[in-house]
Write a structure and sequence with these properties.
The chain has 419 residues and is of the alpha/beta class. The protein has two domains: 33-171, Leucine Dehydrogenase, chain A, domain 1 (Rossmann fold), CATH 3.40.50; 185-344, NAD(P)-binding Rossmann-like Domain (Rossmann fold). The chain is built from 14 helices and twelve strands. It binds nicotinamide-adenine-dinucleotide.
């Protein structure tokens, strides 16, 4: 049976707590989000009808700093998913050592069926309804699945209108013209590339010629594909919600990138040359005999029902929670090296931190500075996780969680329990 996403995260917390002999009280605190808000979000549709959507904002832990986490628009988004994603954000920020806690938001909706004006109204109304619990020193949203820089611009505007002044540091992942950071759009994919190159290096392999399959060709998947292609890797398969393409000799990534960068809401099935491509379904893509598999779409894609069929030696988790806890145990037994989400996709929150700092200072960095600082933090976190996994003979996921729970426990202990 496929575990719920939050159950998977709770199981990982429990396993890690036992491994590091975590204080029982702290363990209880980390299993329970600090704050959850569910809101009914009415909007007037373009045809004049009113529709009401359900939105969420969950703050898992503010122990290490203001809460931080993206906002997802997806038909399958629910409280269980948002809780899981919020908890992963706390652990991710701790592994990267950025001074944030974890949060996440989402609206249950199909954004592909809404016009841009409807999406703008939905975003601004949702933000108005979660405004009591967010803020530049409280909780700072960012993009996630089906939200982007434009969505963040609308959020910045809504909060600025309430405050009567421009509030740059309320949100990250903003457009460059509205105080966004150079390098933020590419940061998560760049981090995935850095982790892939690093894990290949530790295993004595060269990125050049390495075969890679990528599920999800959005912000994370497409940038990871482009940067790995530039390193000489052969991207043999990609997919999105509409189609999957496969070429054992390597796909033409520059042409596919050009397509997704120039289309408004691009779907791979609409690529002008799609009739000439070999197609592949999701299950076959995940099972391809490649060196590296990068799931960069949604959670629970690899689970107890299909983990046995995975052939890749290395999995780098671009998405959050793409492997269920049950699926992870099967992969561990098979000896698959998994670079876990809370390390592999932390490039986004690391550069979000840079954007937040730049917004507070109203002083903006060049892209080389952003990318160099990202690389420093990323490689240092990778090294910590890799070394501990070797020292304790545990998976990289276990070592990443051991590091993060330990840091969170220290913060909680130093602050003490209020009152
Ligand atoms: P996105 O909306 O830009 O892209 C998502 C991609 O997944 C799209 O190509 C979509 O078509 C595809 N997809 C959706 N359902 C699919 C399915 N069933 N099969 C195959 N493909 C499917 O979102 P994103 O920002 O790239 O996020 C992808 C993942 O990375 C999510 O798990 C997200 O939480 C995680 N993540 C994103 C960031 C970030 O900075 N954007 C940071 C960390 C983690």
């Amino acid at each position: 049976m496929v575990q719920s996403f939050y159950d998977s995260v709770l199981e990982q917390i429990d396993v890690t707590a036992e491994r590091i002999s975590l204080d029982k009280g702290v363990h209880k605190m980390l299993r329970q989000p600090e704050r959850e808000l569910t809101v009914g979000v009415p909007i007037e549709k373009d045809d004049g009808d009113i529709e009401v959507f359900t939105g969420y904002r969950v703050q898992h832990s503010g122990a290490r700093g203001p809460c931080k986490g993206g906002i997802r628009y997806h038909p399958a988004t629910d409280l269980d998913e948002v809780r899981a994603l919020a908890a992963l954000m706390s652990f991710k920020c701790a592994v990267a050592n950025v001074p944030f806690g974890g949060a996440k938001g989402g609206i249950t909706c199909d954004p592909t069926g809404l016009s841009n004006k409807e999406l703008q109204r939905l975003t601004k109304r949702y933000i108005a309804m979660i405004l009591p619990i967010i803020g530049p020193r409280r909780d700072i949203p960012a993009p996630d699945v089906f939200t982007d820089a434009q969505t963040m611009g609308w959020i910045m505007d809504a909060v600025s209108m309430y405050e009567g002044k421009t509030v740059l540091d309320i949100v990250t992942g903003k457009p460059l013209d509205l105080g966004g950071s150079l390098g933020r759009r590419e940061a998560t994919g760049r981090g995935v590339m850095l982790n892939t190159v690093e894990v290949l290096d530790r295993l004595g392999k060269d990125p050049k010629g390495t075969t890679v399959a990528i599920q999800g060709f959005g912000n994370v998947g497409s940038v990871a594909a482009q940067l790995l292609h530039e390193k000489g890797s052969k991207i043999v398969a990609i997919s999105d919600v509409s189609a999957g393409y496969y070429d054992p000799d390597g796909l033409d990534i520059p042409s596919l990138m050009n397509f997704v960068e120039t289309e408004d809401r691009p779907l791979l099935c609409n690529h002008p040359e799609c009739q000439g491509f070999n197609t592949i379904d999701n299950d076959s893509l995940l099972a391809l005999d490649v060196d590296v598999l990068i799931p960069a779409a949604l959670e629970n894609q690899v689970h107890s029902g299909n983990a046995d069929s995975i052939s890749a030696d290395i999995i780098v988790e671009g998405a959050n929670g793409p492997i269920s806890k049950n699926g992870d145990s099967i992969l561990n037994e098979k000896g698959t090296t998994v670079v876990p989400d809370i390390l592999a996709n932390s490039g986004g929150v690391i550069v979000s931190y840079f954007e937040w700092v730049q917004g507070i200072q109203s002083f903006f960095w060049g892209v080389d500075e952003v990318n160099a600082n990202l690389k420093n933090i990323m490689l240092s976190s990778f090294n910590d996780v890799w070394e501990l996994s070797k020292e304790k003979d545990v998976s990289m996921r276990d070592s990443a969680f051991m590091i993060s729970l330990d840091k969170m426990a220290k913060a909680i202990e130093l602050r003490g329990i209020f009152p």
